[in-house]
Amino acid sequence: MLLRLHQIDKFYPTGEGPLHVLNGIDLSLEAGKSLALTGESGSGKSTLLHLVAGLDSPDAGEIHLGGTNIVGLNDTALAALRRGTVGLVFQQFNLIPSLDVAANLAFQARLAGRPDPAWLKVLAKRLGLAQVLTRYPEQLSAGQQQRVAIGRTLAARPRLVLADEPTGNLDEATGDAVLDLMLSLVAETGAALLMVTHSNRLANRLNARVHLHAGRLV
Amino acid sequence: MVWTGLTALLSHWRRRPVQLAMLLLGLSLATALWSAVQAINGEARASYDRAAAILGQDRLAQLVREDGARMDQQEFVRLRRAGWLASPVIEGEMRFGDVRLRVLGIDPLTLPPQAQQVDVAVGDELLPFITAPGVLYAAPETATRLTEQATPPVRVAEGLPPGTVLTDIGQAQVLLGAKDKISRLLLWPDQPIGRAPLEVTAPGLTLREPSETGDLARLTDSFHLNLTAFGFLAFAVGLFIVHSAIGLAFEQRRPVFRTLRALGLPARVLVLLLIAELLTFALLAGLVGVALGYVVASALLPDVAATLRGLYGADVPGTLLIRPAVWAAGLAIAVIGTLVAAAQSLWRLWHLPLLAAAQPRAWARASERALRAQGVAAMVLLLTAAGIAHFGSGLEAGFALLAALLLGAALALPLVLTGILHLGGRLARGPLAEWFWADTRQQLPGLSLALMALLLALAVNVGVSTMVSSFRLTFTGWLDQRLASELYVTARTEAEATAIRDWLAQRSDAVLPIWSIEGRVAGQPAAIYGVADHATYRDNWPILSAVPEVWDRIATGDGALINEQLARRQELGLGDQITLPGGWRASIVGVYADYGNPIGQVIIGIDTLLQHYSDVSRLRYAIRIAPGKAEALAAGLRAEFGLPAQNVIDQAGIKVFSLKVFERTFRVTAALNVLTLGVAGLAMFASLMTLSGMRLPQLAPVCAMGLPRRHLAWLELWRGLLLAGLTMLAALPVGIGLAFVLLAVVNVEAFGWRLPMHLFPGDWARLAALALLAAGLAAAAPAWRLARLSPSDLLKVFAHER
Ligand SMILES: Nc1ncnc2c1ncn2[C@@H]1O[C@H](COP(=O)(O)OP(=O)(O)OP(=O)(O)O)[C@@H](O)[C@H]1O
Ligand SMILES: [Mg+2]
């Protein structure tokens, strides 16, 4: 099993006392499979994803990634995890504005220490970015920017791709096209995918789906 | 990983060259002003050390008379006979034409090797050295100054302090008109055992241990401290630019930092990379800054040298040496300054939550909290300043007071401005006006650092110019009093002096002797003057405080007047007793103002002077005559006695000279002042320029709602002017407080005199105009950019709005 969550609890401190966002979550995902995470706004989908990415830590429970429990690892170890094993695609594109498209695409792979120019070329072509490699993020359309963000993640060949509403900022047609691309590329690289989405239509296109409600999976 | 991370961080600057330039410029300017002051101080110190080391005084003990007066050559002979190994030295000031020099006479035959400054015994040089007319050794610079003058032959010798000539003691005694006199005796380090004790052989002499620092270093200490304080202030203002440039760069890159962390760059590595980036900038800017500092220093040094000569009689060469210590200190201060300026940003970055999305409101809340903390800090600092003003004393307290006052005022500024802008908003009518005030208030956090820098620069400007102008007013008034006589004449010999006196007796209203001796009073170098009992003094002398009938008491010989600096330095007051050279005592009957004089001065009756110092040289006289006849009399004097032009000077001539010295004294301060103001203007420009990019999302909606862009641009310009104007208003009271501290505390410590404060609203108006102009220029570029912004750029703001 690539990813296994065991009895995850997460609280947020708020003005009206602690908010129990995640309540005893169990979840697992095999390598090469894709899983959709749905739930209404504020149900804790992003929170769950951030825990898996090691961007935040749970108040209780274990998160096993490739056999190791990542809960309680220090910042350096978690950073290494994000460089090497996990890839993140956000709703906001989070490109580096001062780097051009080519540099943004190559960025994470270089950071992880495994640049692969041939694979980059393939990715750029498949993502339809070959013509805009020397432009800067601000000179791209929203759909193009999200494709750069996806390419950046896949270029490093992560074993697990985490995506938080990757098409949430795009119109429906563009979103569908970008999602198609992402799904097929993820499948080709053999990575597992955990994707947060609002949309039932999109969720149905993945191998499996879980629904988050009142802090529990249903 | 490190390299990849670094390229991402550095790419920010490639796309924002202006911001980078501002950062580097701010840092180099700050370093430059600081290093300039350091270079000047270093040069001056080195020359004091050289002066202190002359003739091995830093290594050899000496015998001197306790009162500082010269001793008879007989003392030397007696000591030699009693077995002492000593070498006589005579020292004195004299004029060759219009060049004033220190003459050092030595005895090459008995001089200890440690004191051998110039090897006069090489080959056949000894004979011409010890026989008339003798040879003068001088540093190359001094030798050049002497080329036009009638002197004994001059030889160039490296290593002598500027403004000093070395010659044989016999020749020096002739030159100085002090036959058979000696200033001091240098002692060989190893003295024979069994020599007669000093108390027996020469009871009037005391042993002075070798000292590393001369009188000069001590006298000028406060002056250099003063300069250092200004250098530091300029540096601090420069740091405001650096701080705001770094802060903005960090703020802009915050999403990038977050992305980098999300992509797997550990926080520690990120912080280290940013520190490396900052250090690179610091070293780069530091190098440029120190180089620039040398340029500034060499431009200022001649004025500083003139000041030191005029004010302290200290000779400092007009050229700079490149000193490794200045380079090292410059780079160090650049690095330290950068780290200090970046500390807050780095600390925030270290605690940057990985997840919290950009929350402008949260940021605003945080800055409200910061504003409150700042207000508390300002209160504490201002209270501290008040406390120091009340209880503190001394130069250190003075500077601490200045620092607390300036920093407190700077920190209080954003709070004050927020209050005023709130009020403005309350009084505003119409939606546009309301938006203008609210929006201006919103800009404040981003601009407050630049405004604080502007406040500091303006306050310093107001303070320093108030001080200098007050000083000038007092000084010119004082000169009128002090230089009451119409003509001043200097005879070349005693015989000529007598002849001139006789000649003048019929032709002038009065001939007043200006006779003086030099010595030590209360442990300080001082000059003792005798004055005639004449209305010139009674009516004009700038007395600060005196007992009744002071001039009668001077005339009858039972009192002495002392100058303000001697009174302040030695805490002497009316009625106190002082011991004068020769060991007799007099009681203080008055204190007078004596601006521009580094050393102490004592005035006694002329008869008393002659009674105690019968060998005083009687060459200088002040002449009273109807002003209309002064010129003719001067011409007559020159013709009758063949006197050189500079030996007969009229009142106006001396005044011009004195004022020139005065103006030069403050030219350095004025230059640093202007430079600081320039740096502050730059800070404003940098902040507005960077903010303008970030402001687009705030302006775009207003534009979309139908306000023409040009109109918006004008509003931006007005905003800059408004903020600068308010800052200027706030700077006025701070500057006046500063002037007060400078006049009443710092100057008293640094120069030994206190001056009344005068206010010059005309100067303020000029400064305000200048500040508004600077702010207008700084705001113009971003405003112009806004006015020319294409609609599509504005639309992009909406497309990207998140
Ligand atoms: N830092 C925080 N502090 C306090 N409460 C938080 C914090 N972050 C999120 N929450 C709360 O936790 C709950 C879950 O948030 P989360 O962002 O995981 O929801 P989500 O399912 O991703 O919603 P959406 O579909 O709108 O993105 C929400 O009620 C939110 O208000
Ligand atoms: Mg979410």
UniProtKB/TrEMBL annotation, chain A:
Enzyme Commission code(s) on record: 3.6.3.-
SUPFAM superfamilies hit by this protein: P-loop containing nucleoside triphosphate hydrolases (SSF52540)
Catalytic EC class: hydrolase
A Gene Ontology cellular-component term: plasma membrane
Record bears the keyword Metal-binding: no
Alphabetically ordered keywords of this record: ATP-binding, Hydrolase, Lipoprotein, Nucleotide-binding, Transport
Keyword Hydrolase: yes
Record GO terms (molecular function): ATP binding; ATP hydrolysis activity; transmembrane transporter activity
All residue ranges annotated as the ABC transporter domain in the record: 3-218
Family as reported in the entry's similarity comment: Belongs to the ABC transporter superfamily.
Protein name: Lipoprotein-releasing system ATP-binding protein LolD
Organism: Mesorhizobium prunaredense
Gene that this polypeptide is encoded by: lolD
Automatic annotation (TrEMBL), chain B:
Domain ABC3 transporter permease C-terminal as annotated: residue spans: 229-348, 673-791
Keywords: Cell membrane, Membrane, Transmembrane, Transmembrane helix
Tree of life domain: Bacteria
Keyword Lipoprotein attached: no
Record has Membrane as a keyword: yes
Topology in membrane: Multi-pass membrane protein
Localization per record: Cell membrane
Transmembrane portions of the chain: 227-250, 270-297, 325-350, 371-391, 397-423, 444-464, 670-691, 720-744, 764-784
InterPro entries (UniProt xref): ABC3_permease_C, Membrane_comp_ABC_pdt
Cellular component terms (Gene Ontology): plasma membrane
Name listed for the protein in its UniProt record: ABC3 transporter permease C-terminal domain-containing protein
Origin organism lineage: Bacteria, Pseudomonadati, Pseudomonadota, Alphaproteobacteria, Hyphomicrobiales
